[in-house]
Structures are given as C-alpha cells and as structure tokens.
Amino acid sequence: MTTVSKILENLEKEDGLEVPRLEKSLKLSRKIDRDNLEIAIKALTKLGIVKSIENEKLVINKEIDFVRGRVRCSSKGYCFVVREDEGEDIYIRETNLNNAWHGDSVIVLITKEALKRRAPEGSIQCVLQRYNETLLAKIEKDNANGNLKAYPLDDRIPAIIDVEDGEEIITNLSNKDFIYEIEISKYPIAQFKAIGKIIREFPLNAGVEGDVDILLSKNNISRNIDPPKVSPKKIQLKGREDLTCQPSLLFSSWECKNSPSLPALFAQPYEGGNRIWIHSPSVSERLNIGGKLDKYLMDKGEAICLGNNWLEFLNETLVSASAFKLNEEREAISLMIDIDSKGIVIDWKFSLSIIKPVKEVTDKHLQTINNRKATSKSIPIALKSLKENLEVIYTIIHSSKLINQINNSSIKLDQHIPNLERLSELQKAFPSRDFHGWTKSYDSCDPQSILDIYIRLSNNILAKHLYEYKLPFIFKEHEGIEQSSINELTKSALVLDSDITVKLDGSQSANDLIKSFDSSSEKKILHKLVKHIIPGIHLKLFNHADSINYDELNKKSFISNVESPWCCPSLNYWNIFNQFIISLLLNDGKSKNSSRSKDSVNLGQKDSWKDVSWKIFSSKINEIIEKQANLKLIQHLNDRRKQSKSFRNNIISIAQGREAQKIIGKEVPAIITGVQSYGFFAEINELTSEGLVHVSTLGDDWYEYRSRQNLLIGRKNKKTYQLAQKINVRVLKVDILKNQIDLELIKNEDSDLINNKKMTSENRSDDKE
User: For the S1 motif domain, which residue ranges apply (predicted)?
Assistant: First the structure.
C-alpha cells in the first residue's frame, strides 16, 4: 500500500520529480495504483503540501509552515499531536481531527499560537500514515438495517466501522465472550465511515495462548512476518583476535529454548584491579546495511517476551550463525575493560575476535555460591561442573558489585512480578532494557542481573568512544525527574516512615532518596511511589553537530551518563545499529595517515582518537552512515519500543486479572498503595495486582481527600484510609480487556476503632484550620 508518507519521502530525495519517475520510484505498475496516486497528488497540491515547478516536476512546498507529528488521544476525548521536531505538543479540537485516529502520523497546520500556559492549537491537514491497519472490536447488529457494526475496544478511537462479509466468521453474535480482529479496508473520509472486515474471532477464555493472541493483536504486533530469503554475509576471519583459549562464560537466566542469545564474560585480576572481557555476538557484520534482511529487522524492531515464550527478533539463519554455543567457535565483537580496586574504569579496547564459550552459569549455580560459606573448602555438588571456572565467576561477581556501587546512571528499583509460570521469563532481569525508566535492583543470584551491570558499562564506554571519534550513535535519553516531584515524594516517605534519613532542603537526588528507602519497612510502597514519578526513556540519535554547542561541563555530564546499546543484537535493532558503527570503525577505519606510513593506530583503544589527524572513513562509507543515521529511524524504533512496553504491561496485567478471577467473592488481605479523591488502590498480597475500592462503595460517611497526607478521612466518623494501611478486601469484578479489578472493603470494627483513636489527635489541628 502506498501512503502519503512514502510519496513525500520520495519527493524529499530529489530536487523535484516528474509523475512517471515518482510512479517508478514507488513501484506502481497497475493502472488503479497510478490513478490513486494522481488523486493523492491533486489533494496534496490543493492543501499546499506539494507544488509543481518547472517541467512539471513535483516538490514539497516549503513556503507553508506545516508540522509533522503523531496523534495522541485520551479516552476522555482530548487530542494532541506530538511533534517530530520535539517542539510543544499541538492541541487538536475534535472538529479539526479530520478523521485522524490515535497513533496516526499526520501533517498539522498551526491555527493558534501558544499563549501563557495554553498549548498551540492546530488543524490536521493530512494523514501521512495510518497506525491501525487492524484493531480489536466488539460486533453488534444495527437494528435499523441489520448490518454489522464494529466498535473498537480502544476508547481512544471513537469510531464506528461498517463491517463487510463477516457473518461466516462469527460463531455466536449474542455471545459476549468473543471479540474480533478487524482489518481496515477503507479509512473514514469526509462523511463516509470506515469499512473493515473480520479476519479473526477471539474467545475471551482460550487460556494463556488465547490471551497472548489477543494482546499481540491489541498492540499491532504480528507473529508471522516472513523473513526475506537472503543468507547472512560470511565474516572474514583475517585480522580477528583469536580468544578461543580464553575460558569465557555464558550468564543466562532465561530458560526458554528460543530466548535471545546474550554476551559472554571473562574476568581476571590485573594490576591491583580486574580485567574484564565482554564478548557480543557479531550480527551487524553479517548484514548488508540497507538491504532486505536489514530492513526486515528494522521493521520488527525488537524481540518480544510473551511471558514464558519469545517472539524472536533475529531470523533462524542469523540465530544459527551468530548465537554463542558451548564449545563452538563464534565471531564476536569484544570489549576489554580494566577497572581499579574501586570499580573505576581506567582503560578499554574494542576488537574483532573469535571466542569459544566453555560453561554456562545459571541462577541455581549463583544461589549455591551465595549460600556457600567463604571459609568452605569443599565444593558443593551443584558447582562440580564449574570447578575450574569458580575463580573467574567470583571475580565477575566481585567486579559487578564494585561497578554497581558507583554507577548512578540508572535508577534501580525492586521489580514485583507475580510468581506465575506464564510469566516465568519476565521475572528475570532484561539486560540493558529500560521499560519504565528504571531497572531491576541488582541481584547477585540472577545471572542476567550481573550481566546487565557489564552491558550498561559497555554501552557507556561505546558512547564515549564514538563521541570522541565524532561518529553517530543511538543512545538512551533519560528524562529528568522534576525536583518538585522529588520533594513531594520526600514528604510522603516521611509520613510513611519517620526514621528515613532525607534532606529537606530540596537538594536530594532521586537516587539518594531511593537509597534511603533500603532499610525501611515500607520499602515496597516507597518504590511504588518512585515508579509513578519517573518520566521514562526515549531513543535519540547523536550526531557530532549536536555537540558543537556543548561546553566542557555539559560534555562531561553527557558522556559520563549516556548509554549507547550494542552488546545484545539479538534483542533489538538499536543494538545492531550501534554495533554496525563500531564494527565499521574496526573493519574499515583508516588506522594510519597513508599506506606508506609505518605507524598505525589501534582504533579500538581508549584515547586512540588523540593520535588520529586524518579522515577515518572514505566518502562512500560516510554516505552509507549518513543514509542510515536519520530521525525517521529513531521515530520508528521509539514506536516499536512503545509497542513492546505496552505488550509487556498488558501480559502482566492480564495474568494478574486471570488470577483475580479465581478469587472473585473471596476475602483477601491487601495493602493500600495509592489514594485519590475517588477512592483508593489496594494491592492484593498474593497476586501483587492492584484494584480500586471506589469511594462510593464505602457508604458509611462522606470522605474528604487530603493529598498532603495521602489519605481519605470521613467527615463525621473521622475514619481514615491512608497509604500503606493493611486492609481486607473482596474481589467484586474483573475486566480482563481493560485491566481493571473492582474491590470492596471488608470492614473490621476492631481495626477501625484502633485506627480512629490513632488518627483523631493528628487530625484535630487540621479540622480547626
């Protein structure tokens, strides 16, 4: 399907294109496709987005200040366009949406500039690309004419879709336990509604696999994308460092057969500190960047964990060629890191290598090591197979603890995922991946938690290396937490636990505050509060031009904290892109001033850039890099990250909901985890899932919300419900599709009486005020 986005993309490449050349560029051979292109060009010309110049060439009109962005709607009907240029979001009134849906890529004309605290307003001129090619919906018959109508489950899409040719798929229209996947064949235009057809029927009670299928469809993730029939490139072995004699180890917690391949580690004492090797499977060297296989991986974006299974990122041939296997030689991109006795990096070197992993370290091995007494001379049975590698393992664990203590670039919090078989793979640390702006706390019994420490350090080292060589790279940008949010969190923490040591002068960082929670009995609740104020992470593209205006202080701050992922190319495409840049440097970078020069520079060595005064790459390679490193790639990858994050949230929520369904009507213990004016949220202890006790169900009084104290208080009886309070609740209702659990408070007169006496004296002064 040709989209407006593809048309404009082709017009941007040239200084004008004639229609026949545009048709050829878009590969349009059928008459109907050419006719549709003609209609699209006429519409774009009337809107002023495209104009015709000499010799009937078409160009993008730069005279009108159009803005590109993506539509973001709320369930309450508010719509904004998030700009591609990262400017202020544009408010779109319902009358100016022009049939655009949530997620669509659009062109906007600003109609009213921003005033004081009000956002600018705009009107959507054109939909560049539709986000929803399929969606989940409920089907009903129109009473007037008997035609089928689809009502999207996503309440951010307030549309009614006419359904064609769908009756043969529907098992029983009156059965409310079915939902349907609708493929949009015609999108709404002017007064005409959208038209779609039913492609799949989903029963709501089809077990774990049924839940997974529903959520994949909900998040627009396809199980079956056929890879191109292209074989991976063979890697040249000449010039690679032979490290096959090094007994490198695989650290893995995931147990599924199709789980992604991860880096290998080796460590040994070195000059009072330790020398660590991290070996990454070489994937980028096997790809023709810009080729069919590369575009296939770029489109997929990343590997998706289905809970206890995986939707793989790499195709079978790439996995077979690159994944590390015990006692088998594999090509790698390796990083040697020297750290001192405090865990500070003093030297590093990137190299192309060949390795041969000898053993795999699992969580069972690490649990045995942690339980083993330091003075014990006997080796437990569980560690017999690792007898010759124990010193290496102890060095790796010790070094990871040192590095973890001084690394403050990421926020580390406890991860609370239900201990369910269907979520087994999600319970392990996901190396280098930040789904919510924070990472799982260091766990010396989880191999991937240890591996994560080295991967993040390696990511930071790569960013520093490429920064100094003035090469582009994709990095993770952590949005800053507002100081006002930290101050409010500090106040809430002190209400919960007065023994916490905090600074009240507003100078405390989020990491310092989190460290003060470690000894608190309310650590779990406090960590939940922290998660609510962390903004999140986005991928960004770094180009040398971006750093021209950096002063030394900003430069130092940037390169000391930024992460440029590259070690895990089996997880996502941004790892492949960064690995492509470093492998280009090592493979094709000019290591000496001229072919006659005897002195060469090791381009992978720390500080090697100081000895380079010539151009590293040929003009041809620079063109390849410039073509690949663009904002469109970053926007696409950020969209894929959001899909993956949404799916991850959904798969956990639906598992919790299914467990909650089993205890509907039962009384269970819970703890209040959030208080709002409309009620309070309580976490069911055995499920770690939250439900809402609505204020209307309390019934015995009129309750006021006091935000400073995080509590609800009855006007007459002075009964209170506050953060971290233990209660008993009954599960009333579970909505699987909306991830909502409705709870009812079980009132206990004895506990209420104690609670009243405790709080009365604290609230008298407030009542007087």
Answer: 665-746
